[in-house]
Protein 1
Amino acid sequence: MSHPLSYLDVAGAQAATVEPLLWATIAISVAVTAIIALLLAGGLWRRRAPAPAEGEALPPLERGVDGARWIWIGVGISLVPLFATLVWTVAVLAQVGPLPRNPRVTLDVTANQWWWDVRYDGPQPDQIFHTANEIHVPVAEPVLVRLHGGDVIHSFWVPRLSGKTDLIPGQTNQAWIEADRPGIYRGQCAEYCGAQHAHMAFEVVAEPRAAFDRWRARQLQTAPPPASEAQAAGFALFASRCGMCHSIRGTSARASAAPDLTHLMSRRTLAAGTLPNNPQSLTGWIENPQAIKPGALMPDQGLSAADLNSLRAYLETLR
Ligand code: CUA
């Protein structure tokens, strides 16, 4: 069974540090609930004074002399687990907080309504590239993530790997993630950010170093020129309709208001984790994005079937 968003299905260094504390908190909560339920049940089942007969006065109320003492004993007992979890929490925070020194991979994630721009840093300008809604990381290496808010406040969360960090306009927050085994870990915006907050997901693809390096080398390549008439028509359409928001490296489309599409077809999902990336959903998304994500900035284009076909023929070359 897969639990893509379960923070109990731990797959990374930070999540593993938090996990024992999490289970302890759950155990304490269950124990406290059980104790209270038992005391309550005991109180309900205890012997009660018989109801007075008609005309008879109520018997005088017996006041327990040490009622107040029991209250203080109760408060004292409650403080023990509270204080213990406080100390434990501070210790865990101190462990997961510090950022990795000299990370080999650094990326900048910018959250927008409702998608994620991911920029990979490199020593040279030609080694920097953007992708969207999909983060590749090498396994067992801490990756530094600088977080930016493009419009409103969002929150970066990959439950199986680490906790949440907000992305705030005008401020750069930093977080780190590390996956201890290969896999695909789903991430989700964790701060309500508007109508399509729920459709603001992404994936972290953790792979061995060699595979990660191959992916990176491939992402650095620019898009191939159109190779057929249909592709050329599709590109012309793209340049006039889509190029003012999207970017495809190696072409005249250089805008950054929407996801970089240079290697669109290499991604597993479309529309920020909303749709699987296949020809049917690609066509559906371009045809009618407002039906899939109402309020998204991508407008319905009203394209003819022929235009849609040529546009798709071109987009499918972006591998
Ligand atoms: Cu972005 Cu919620």
Note: The helical segments are 13-45, 67-96, 209-220, 229-241, 279-287, 289-292, 305-315.
Protein 2
Amino acid sequence: MLYLDNSATTPLLPVVREAMLPYLLEEFGNPSSKYYSKAINATKAIEQARKNVANLLGCKPEELSFTSGSTETNNMVLKGVTDYYQTKGNHIITSKAEHPSILDTCKYLEDLGFQVTYLNVDKYGRVSLDNLKNALSDNTILVSIMWGNNELGSLNPIEEIAALCKESNVFFHTDATQVVGKIDFSLEDLPGISFLSCSAHKFHGPKGTGVTFIRRDEYGVPVPLTPLLHGGGQEGGIRSGTLAVHNIVGMGKAAELANNYLEENILKLKMLEEQLTNILNAKFGRKIVFNNDKINKVPGILNVQFRGVNNEILVKKLAPVIAVSTGSACSSSKPSHVLSSIGLPLEEIRNTIRFSLSHLITEEDLMVFKSL
Ligand code: PMP
């Protein structure tokens, strides 16, 4: 079976699994216990992982707190910043094409009395800088715009948004879950990004682990926010709970590999995307329509309409040979809000499936389409 649902999750690399195993077995210590070797080794492994993830993101290790993944990080930033700064303002700006972990958190915040602007997006799911400029007010405390869209792959103009937010003195959070390991960037060059979310399982690390990037100023002081989880004070008090050492080690190893092979992996993904596009065009011609943009996107995501074909039936039919999804795995039972935000009618949404590649796939693997 050819797995083409890598935007939902990626397979764990064998070398990542090998790196994790000792921390599930003999090195099982709780890093908070501090004084004996099993605890010290766990702490060392965590700090090494933190450095590896920081190298991949281009930030300082102390700017990262480990979490259970992007859902938690998105909740942590949105709830934490709005709670901490509620006396400064009560307005948040986001977009209609965000992940449910942003949109549902915003709905929750609206119930608490915050005002949320949901920016419209263009036909590929991108926000416009002018719309953002017009939405900013003295009351705005946070802007949260995703870097790469999980269904269409489109990249938002993050550099410009970050610069605008910095100039306007507003905190900017970006959900970078789909871009880490797939585009080349460095947080050091983007001082307007105050917070960033990412999840290890999207770049061949384990599920249930991610980081929150929280920018520190020149004096080493992090942007303050109210913690989501209170307790033992781990991660500098910002995220309590015993650290999942094995998972964090896995994320560190996956980050090291993603960083070392970044250019190579990007080239491979672009090449595979082009090949899959050609195969689909040759095989289905006018029976398909690509909803995704061809440029300025996360490499390896294709969002394709099969005219007149019900996507759930198609996905089920393909399942023994090719694993794909009808859109985001997180909300596949409902018609995609992302495709609806770009103006696609319900009928076309119900004809659409997402193919998402990984650098582990070979050109030969894609030949399976020819035999369909
Ligand atoms: N944001 C985006 C853009 C995503 O694609 C996902 C995963 N589908 C998440 C957030 C949530 O990540 P996780 O399930 O790892 O918490």
Note: Residues 69-71, 99, 101, 146, 150, 175, 177-178, 199, 201, 328, 330 surround 4'-deoxy-4'-aminopyridoxal-5'-phosphate (CB under 6 Å).
Protein 3
Amino acid sequence: MTGTGTDYSVQGGIAVIRVDNPPVNALGSHVRLSLNELMRRAEADAAVRGVILTGTGKVFVAGADLKQIDAPRSGPSINDLLAFVEGMTKPVVAALQGLALGGGYEIAMGCHARIAAAGVRVGLPETTLGLIPGAGGTQRLPRLVGAAAALDLIASGRQVAADEALRLGMVDAVTSGDLLAEARGLLDRVPRPLPRLRDRTPQGPAGDLPSARAAFEARAVALGQGALPAIRAAIAAVRDSFDPDFDAAIAREHAAFHTLRTGPEARAMIHAFLAERASAHVAGVSRATPRLSVAQVSIIGAGTMGGGIGITCANAGYTVTMVETSAPALEAAKTRIEGVYIGQVSRDRLTPEAAAAALARFRWVQGLEAGVAGADLVIEAVFEDMGLKKEVFAQLDRLAPPSAILASNTSYQNIDELAAVTQRPDRVVGMHYFSPANVMKLLEIVRGAATSPETLATVLDLARKTGKIPVVVGVCYGFVGNRMLWLRTVQTQRLLLEGCSPRQVDTVLTDFGFRMGPCQMGDMAGLDVAWRLRKARGERMEPVDTLADAGRWGQKTGKGWYLYPDGARDGVDDPALAPVVAEVAARLGVTQRAVSAAEIEERLLYPLINEGTRILEEGIVERAGDIDVIYLHGYGWPRHRGGPMQFADARGLPAIVATLDRMAEAQGDDTLRPSALLRRLAATGGRLID
Ligand code: 3H9
């Protein structure tokens, strides 16, 4: 590779321009400037009769450089490049040797013809980042595949395999032979005058668009609020492709792209994309870190959580031993797990063969000794009780092969204390799955003080192989997600006491973009769960425990914060609830009042954010983005709001600090005071996200 991110060579009268900008050949400014220059060089070189544009590695070009998306631009743009290519006297063929996404596929559309290696995928995923294609994609794709199909591809952002791309007309040829040789052949066949998409009119009657538009707007709503501005802009831009003034439509597309790029949704969604990738980088772990080989996983405790973990492992090809203390418990687990597979087959999520193959990977064993013999990884998923967990860990250490990793699925407990009861603290780690474990993507991987890089690397690999999004966190009570969520729980209860209805509280969060609010979540999970734990500890939380006392446990008892007549899943408001809560408030001396939606939002989110900054301060996570990944994938934080840390930056740290101070005063609760980190960043104009 040269410093330009490109390579240029002339072979037999054909200039081959190769993008070579690892890791994904993104269109950084150096690549953009160099492509502009190299096309001009090829056009000017009398010895060149045609140009092949190709890439290096698995990716042709992954599109705009998202890490530079905010950098000021100078020099010719990709639109300038494509306008130049379309005006060239020599044919240019895009030879797609790997994925062509976003700006990458837009460049290919600006060439005179396109050929793809078999196995290549192409697509315009910009809407998934809150953007629209901004280098002519909304104008050229309708001319290639028709307006309705173009809108479908742009609004879904889906990647299209080579065969389908050929069928749709997105590429002119697909080859499993020598791509460059085939591209040369295609160059010779390009008709004269050179075909330019700008000269075509979009295929398909313009009249089709209104109905397509309605369908896409409906889809946009279903996708969530984050996608809406981008999808609406995409609909408008594709409609614009019927304007015969191509250059004017391109200019409008560019303006719309720019508006979205600098808007809140795209900023948040691009951050989410990059944070997900950044969280894969873990201090002390690299590709060179040795891995322990894992084929057999033993799961101790075959309850709902253990069963879910077993399913994810079996689906990924591991042999899974489910371990229980009694035969009936094992039998119940077996029935439950088989039920999950039957459900997946009946919903067409899995073929009967795949379900049978996964089930065949399970072994059902009673007792620890037989259960962990031969295990490479043991995941403990017993009742959340430290005494019990320590006992289990001490036994596991005696019984499991000395090389085996011992993981705990605890949601709260101290991994170092568990490691201390074993002779292999380097091989002890936390694997905090979220319920239901076979569905939820997030996995908090808890690194203890002694956890070795090999152990971490091994469980990280397993997590990815099982389709999880792992985030490494340090030891603290509740780790990252639950520790922060507790602050929201406290505020929810205080808001309810102060006179907010469950609906008011929930609506603020669903308007924010969450699928559910805290009361709806509580009703779903069961209000009795935490109530029982508190009772055992002699603690109380109001008003929720008054509801639990009265048997209002949520959906399972037909009433909780809401009523669920006839087993309904969506709760209806209960007029009898407010007086019950008002009585508790009066007993506790809490004055009820009208609380604004803005205050509810601040109280539900700012203390949680504040706790996130303490977690960051304590080094429990490596970077603020890791907290966001945890909230995006484990707690339903809407993607177009970036995650709690990105949201805090966007909202403005000084405003959050001032509000937290006010809240601490008003509630007489100094734990609500802003963290030192938050205060410092707010005072110095700093940000949580680098
Ligand atoms: C666009 O094109 C706008 C245009 O319409 C208009 C302007 C021309 N930029 O995902 P991975 C990094 S919008 C910068 O783990 P994989 C990533 O952060 C763009 N960096 O690999 C990571 O870095 P690190 C439309 C990027 O093999 C490394 O590459 N395009 C970009 O699993 C590896 O990433 C898209 O939305 C980027 N565009 O998957 C495509 N992409 O090593 C976005 C990745 O520091 N990209 N990185 O952690 C992808 O979907 C996947 O990365 C891809 C490879 C499928 C390409």
Note: Residues 23-24, 26-27, 59, 62-67, 78, 99, 101-103, 106, 125-126, 129, 131, 133-135, 137, 274, 277-278 surround (S)-3-Hydroxyhexanoyl-CoA (CB under 6 Å).
Protein 4
Amino acid sequence: MKGKTVIITGGSSGMGKYMAKKFTEAGGNVVITGRNEERLQEAKKEILIEGGSLFTIQMDVRNPDDVKRMVLETVEQYGTIDFLINNAAGNFIVPAEKLSINGWNSVIDIVLNGTFYCSREVGLYWIDNNIKGSIINIGTTYSWGAGAGVIHSAAAKAGVLSMTRTLAVEWGRKYGIRVNAIAPGPIDRTGGAERLWESKEAAMRTINSIPLGRLGEPEEIAELAYFLLSDHAAYINGECITMDGGQWLNQHPF
Ligand code: HXC
């Protein structure tokens, strides 16, 4: 990671922030993006307590012009881009029949379209400059099962999984670019934990559904992302690695 540049979208909170911490500690040049400048600055302060190199870009992954600017500003700041982590997400619990068209579009725009816009723009930069970069998309285990109560997020993340595999084949074959995904289960200190299991009862139900009997830690996701971007994972391409304590397999508890 020393001297390598990584962009983490949605990097001012949750898993994004912990990945940014891990990568700065490992000597990387880290770019975090987010919609809210104040939150970006707070995250920067927190992440840089131990030192390191971090640059913030206020932008919205839903806006293709912002995404273009993200690439330009990163290259201006650090000279190149080595890795992209599509981490920005939007989600809220709502019964499918009550979800408005705007609500549907807003999550699809952030999760599905935003992931494509960022991958496309960074991918074009890599292709033009002959760089064998690597992408990690943050997915979820309900993207291949049922996301009851979060139909917008489930449909968008299923698309992200398909995008992961498709780009891994297209860009792996032609350009040596690797594209992988991480499917986290319930992870503590993240937007998911705050929004999706906000009541004590919901949190207990969630914990009881996990064979290992605990939530995941964001640091564990950061370690996995670090491994996937490293040379140790140079032959892993198009894979989605689940980190959920075995939760999604727990269909018939006894
Ligand atoms: C019903 C809702 C709603 C809610 C928003 N809407 N929240 N409908 N219930 N709780 C509707 C609004 O009424 C509006 O529709 C439409 O969605 C757009 O809302 P805005 O607030 O105008 O959108 P915007 O400001 O763009 O915000 C996007 C957002 C917001 C997705 C709605 O929640 C957001 O910014 N989230 C980012 C952070 C986040 O969600 N993190 C959690 C990620 S966790 P109408 O029809 O009224 O105009 C995750 C993985 C979980 O993704 C994995 C678990 C294992």
Note: The mean pLDDT is 96.
